Design the sequence.
C-alpha cells in the first residue's frame, strides 16, 4: 500500500545536483513541490545556449525536470539528461557537449515565445506535476571576492577555479544588484509551508539564489518553517575546509542574519571520497560550535555509490521526519 503524500507546500531554493537530489526524494513524500532555480549559470551547455540565443540558462531547469517527471520508463529521464559527446565548455555554436534537455528548452522557448511557456510545454510533455521556476525573469551574473580582495567575474570562472592563488572565496554579489525576483518565485514562496535552501555549490548556486533582494527579504521576514541543508563535500574553489558552521556563517554574512530554524548536515564520513576526479574534494566536517537560534540535525545522508552527494532517499527521509 502506497503511503499518502503530505500536503504541505515545499519550496526548494538553489539549483544544480543538490536541488535535483533533494526534490527527487521529496516527491515521494510531499504532494506540492516547487523548485526555484538560480539563473546565474553562464558555464557549460546552459551558459553557451544563454549566450547564443539570449535565453535564460536552461541547464538546472532541465535537470530538475528529469528528477520530477512522472513517467514509468526511466529512459525518459536519461534521454532528457543525455549529453552529446565532446566538451561541454566548447564553442557556443557547436553541438558538442550539449545536454538534450537544454536544447529542448531552447527550442521550446523559440516555439512558445518565452522561457516560462517553454517550461510549461515540457512539463506537459513529460508529465511533471511539480513546479520548476526561474528565480529571476532575466539572466543574472555573479561576481565573487576572495579573502585577499581579488574579484572573479562569472559563475563558470568561479566554479572551475579559473583564478590564481589559494585564498578562499569571501563573498558573492549579483549583477545587476537590484535584479527582480520572478513573480512566479515570489508567489510560490508566499504560498509555501516549508522552505528548504541547499544543498548546492555555496557561492555559485545557493547564495546567488537567496541574495536576490526580494527573496532575501522574504527569507528574513518569513515565520514559517525554513531549513538549510549543508553539503556533504567541499568543493576546492568554493568552500575549501568548510564545516557546517562555516556554511551557517556564510549565509549569515550575506543575508545579515541566519533565518533558518533547522540545519541538516551529514555525519557519515566513513566512505572514501572519489580520487579519480580533476578536483580534490573533502568532507564538510562537523564542529563543536553550539548552534545559536537553530537546531542542528546530523544524520547519515551520504550517497554510498558516489559520496560527494546526498542520497536522495536518505535526505528526503530526514527532511520528512524533521519538518
Sequence:
Amino acid at each position: 500500500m502506497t503511503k499518502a503524500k503530505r500536503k504541505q507546500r515545499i519550496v526548494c531554493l538553489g539549483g544544480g545536483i543538490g536541488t535535483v537530489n533533494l526534490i527527487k526524494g521529496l516527491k515521494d513524500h510531499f504532494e506540492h513541490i516547487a523548485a526555484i532555480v538560480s539563473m546565474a549559470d553562464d558555464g557549460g551547455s546552459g551558459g553557451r545556449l544563454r549566450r547564443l540565443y539570449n535565453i535564460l540558462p536552461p541547464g538546472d531547469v532541465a535537470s530538475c525536470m528529469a528528477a520530477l517527471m512522472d513517467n514509468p520508463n526511466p529512459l525518459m529521464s536519461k534521454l532528457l539528461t543525455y549529453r552529446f559527446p565532446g566538451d561541454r565548455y566548447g564553442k557556443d555554436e557547436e553541438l558538442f557537449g550539449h545536454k538534450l534537455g537544454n536544447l529542448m528548452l531552447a527550442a521550446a522557448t523559440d516555439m512558445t515565445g518565452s522561457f516560462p511557456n517553454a517550461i510549461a510545454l515540457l512539463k506537459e510533455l513529460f508529465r511533471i506535476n511539480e513546479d520548476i521556476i526561474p528565480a529571476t525573469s532575466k539572466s543574472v551574473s555573479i561576481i565573487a571576492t576572495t579573502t585577499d580582495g581579488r574579484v572573479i567575474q562569472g559563475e563558470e570562472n568561479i566554479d572551475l577555479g579559473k583564478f590564481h592563488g589559494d585564498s578562499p572565496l569571501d563573498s558573492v554579489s549579483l549583477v545587476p544588484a537590484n535584479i527582480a525576483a520572478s513573480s512566479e518565485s515570489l508567489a510560490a514562496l508566499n504560498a509555501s509551508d516549508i522552505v528548504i535552501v541547499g544543498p548546492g555549490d555555496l557561492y555559485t548556486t545557493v547564495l546567488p539564489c537567496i541574495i536576490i533582494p526580494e527573496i532575501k527579504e522574504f527569507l528574513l521576514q518569513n515565520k514559517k518553517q525554513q531549513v538549510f541543508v549543508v553539503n556533504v563535500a567541499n568543493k576546492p574553489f568554493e568552500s575549501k575546509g568548510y564545516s557546517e558552521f562555516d556554511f551557517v556563517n556564510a549565509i549569515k554574512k550575506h543575508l545579515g542574519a541566519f533565518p533558518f530554524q533547522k540545519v541538516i548536515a551529514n555525519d557519515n564520513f566513513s566512505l572514501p571520497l572519489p580520487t579519480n576526479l580533476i578536483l580534490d574534494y573533502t568532507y564538510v566536517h562537523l564542529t563543536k560550535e553550539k548552534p545559536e537560534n537553530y537546531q542542528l540535525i546530523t544524520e547519515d545522508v551520504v550517497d554510498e555509490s558516489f559520496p560527494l552527494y546526498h542520497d536522495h532517499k536518505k535526505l528526503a527521509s530526514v527532511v520528512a521526519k524533521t519538518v
Observations:
- The longest helix spans residues 100-112.
- The chain is about 35% helix and 20% strand.
- The two ends are 23 Å apart (CA to CA).
